[in-house]
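Pasting as-is:
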Amino acid sequence: MAAARRPGATRRTSTALLAGTLGLLSPLTLAVPAWAQAAPADGYFAAPPPVDMGKLIPDSRQPDKTYTQTKGCVQRSTLGQNIEIKYRPWGQEYLQIAKAQDIVKAATGSAGGGIRVAVIDTGVTKHPWFQDRLKSGGDYVATPTKGQQPGLEDCDGHGTEVAGIIGAKPDNPEVGFVGVAPDATIVSYRQLSENYEPAKQNSTAGSSSPPSSSSTNPPSGSGTPPPTGGGGGSEGDRTSPGQSNGGRQLEKDGTAGTLKTLAEIIRGIADRHEADVINMSVDNCRPATGSITEGEQQVQAAVHLAALAGIVVVAAAGNATDTCPQNDQPDARKPKTIVTPPWFADDVLSVGAIDETGSVASFSVHGPWVGVAAPGTRIVSLDPAEGSSGLANLTFENGDKASEIQGTSFAAPYVAGLAALVKAKYPQLDAKGIINRIKETAQHPAAPGGRDSFVGSGVVDPVAALTQVLPSEVGNQASAPPPQLAQLPPANDHSSTPMIVALAGTAGGVVALLITLFVMHTIRRNRPAESDTSRR
């Protein structure tokens, strides 16, 4: 009789074990797709892939191809007017630059003296307000004109205006404008130009005479603030208020400048330690495709090397245009536009732009990689024309339309200049320490964690960056910004992973219950037959 019962008991035990096993595995089986759901639908993340240092390329110290000049360089009109602005630009007042400079002067005797800032741009003109602090870095566009040093020609005008915000020092006390770090040394690298284009196969650079230069002196009495001299005659950040033409784009058709030469310059600066701070008001904008290009990998490796060498790398966040769409999607972690070098936020401090109301400028590209923000509208800086000794706050659009100078290109040098001041006052800080000080002392936005994708950690506060005692620098963990009591409804950027996992677990439990009920039902149906067999 015991032997007769053994097959039924065995069957029941096996069935129960099978039911239990299925009950345990079902939630796990159904939960597997939840991990895939944690990523955006296209598999793309806002963070770049890990750095591949094998992509480092050597610095050739020359252009990557032959370029031919196709447009005339910026120059002043034959009137030769150089009007000097006697008021301080709003950006200087907003950031209290004069007070910040006094703090550093009191501690070190100068405002950034001995600090070298590399400007990778369209070159820098030898403006008299740089005194003897403008140095040659290199030319990656064309062979310098006879008698000129590499990097000290600015056919476009963009790089001189950028460098002026960093280190200009007027010799007239009545001039209100002054660079953020007016005693710092500027090291210029001409890396791109929209006045040059790749030479055709049957031509070589210099085979034809350069086009005649065009006048860029704004008409008298035009615009507000008052016209003050010629601006750049280039296709740079020259737009009407609230718009932007995209600034300086790398790898743009018909222009000089590639990610490859940008990576070479950064590598060379790091290897030879030619600068303490790098300013890049140039970038490459493309759709987010879930991949990384070889040129981007080269730049990523180069900026990582620079950061390891203790160099503060600052970059413009980029300007939104028809070809560089704004990241206005609900979930900031799923960008539709990628901007390089700002994308590499682990090693690059990218700078968004605000306008004179303190609001984020409409053209400033958003992204989770944005580090901080600074003034980027109604810009005043050095007149970039050869032989000029004045300032510019207007430029030309399409050859005859005077408009204000603006863009994230001009917000970045405010932060690069601040980094030079912080480096001068706190020489013991490494690159990450300087960036951390600038971020922690910024005017944090009213957002969770004290940062957002518009202005990052907030608008920079130079006075605080130069005076505040940071907990992280004295062995304590920095306190997180307190949550705001009143906030707008959150964006639709929550993760669906917890809900998917919960539903999967519930579904698994239901499946296990159904299996158990089925097994018990089967056992009950088999009992009468087993009883009859045992009685026989």
